[in-house]
């Protein structure tokens, strides 16, 4: 079991953050293709015991279970787990859904053959702590697979755009897109793993006519964006500035009716 202490107040804030809006809609309508990419990169098959950390609604857990693997999906937000369990039932797969903090996983040492996270663990506030837990629950020789948004890519730039409008994070909290930096991941996993396999890929998103359409969709559905608007509060001038900044970012990234969201795929084995 995880031994690191957890900041209960920060945990509660993160749980509430991902319950805002409708992340399930984003998972289904936009980022669904990422799960199968990660499952394939990890080489998951019927003999594997798999843990999906910060699984959300099962974007990667469900495709993993469809291979016949024994899958546990963990997430901090019970609302997302409930939605994921419903989706798994619809697909006819059996997954163990477990509410869990990525920084203090309720699993035994070396319990899993494959430990993965698809744009999930990157949002745990303390990167070193969650990396330690990820390594701890992976068996020796087991596989680790991660997909994270890059700092340079569209979602990384979205967080940079929202940063001036939100309070500074508590000490020790790192920006999520750092997980999309290969050097950062190498530092986090250290000598606990073999050499990293690193591939940059892009998700094509073609559902927004312009930057304003993207902004309005994320303003309604994406927890971190909703939180940024709540931080601005009733300040009409700052709200207008945030509106303009996110729409302008979207416009810069729309080309021929489509956007390209860069992400990093990392695969490795635990030593």
UniProtKB/TrEMBL annotation:
<dbReference type="InterPro" id="IPR029063">
    <property type="entry name" value="SAM-dependent_MTases_sf"/>
</dbReference>
<feature type="domain" description="Methyltransferase type 11">
    <location>
        <begin position="51"/>
        <end position="144"/>
    </location>
</feature>
<dbReference type="GO" id="GO:0008757">
    <property type="term" value="F:S-adenosylmethionine-dependent methyltransferase activity"/>
</dbReference>
<dbReference type="Pfam" id="PF08241">
    <property type="entry name" value="Methyltransf_11"/>
</dbReference>
<dbReference type="InterPro" id="IPR013216">
    <property type="entry name" value="Methyltransf_11"/>
</dbReference>
<protein>
    <recommendedName>
        <fullName>Methyltransferase type 11 domain-containing protein</fullName>
    </recommendedName>
</protein>
């Amino acid at each position: 079991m995880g031994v690191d202490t957890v900041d209960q107040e920060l945990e509660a804030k993160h749980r509430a953050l991902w319950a805002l809006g409708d992340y399930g809609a984003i998972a289904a309508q936009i980022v669904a293709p990422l799960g199968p990419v990660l499952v394939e990169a990890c080489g998951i098959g019927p003999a594997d015991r798999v843990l999906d950390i910060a699984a959300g609604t099962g974007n990667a857990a469900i495709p993993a279970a469809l291979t016949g693997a024994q899958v546990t999906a963990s997430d901090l937000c019970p609302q997302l787990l409930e939605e994921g369990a419903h989706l798994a039932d619809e697909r006819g797969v059996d997954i163990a859904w477990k509410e869990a903090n990525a920084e203090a996983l309720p699993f035994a040492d070396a319990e899993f053959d494959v430990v993965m996270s698809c744009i999930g663990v990157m949002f745990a506030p303390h990167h070193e702590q969650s990396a330690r837990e990820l390594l701890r629950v992976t068996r020796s020789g087991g596989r680790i697979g991660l997909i994270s948004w890059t700092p340079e890519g569209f979602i990384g730039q979205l967080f940079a755009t929202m940063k001036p409008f939100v309070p500074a994070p508590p000490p020790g909290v790192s920006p999520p897109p750092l997980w999309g930096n290969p050097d950062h991941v190498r530092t986090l996993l250290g000598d606990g793993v073999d050499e990293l396999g690193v591939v940059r890929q892009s998700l094509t998103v073609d559902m927004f006519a312009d930057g304003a359409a993207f902004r309005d969709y994320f303003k309604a559905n994406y927890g971190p964006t909703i939180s940024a608007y709540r931080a601005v509060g009733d300040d009409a001038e700052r709200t207008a500035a945030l509106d303009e900044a996110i729409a302008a970012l979207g416009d810069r990234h729309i080309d021929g009716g489509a956007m390209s969201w860069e992400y990093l795929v990392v695969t490795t084995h635990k030593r």
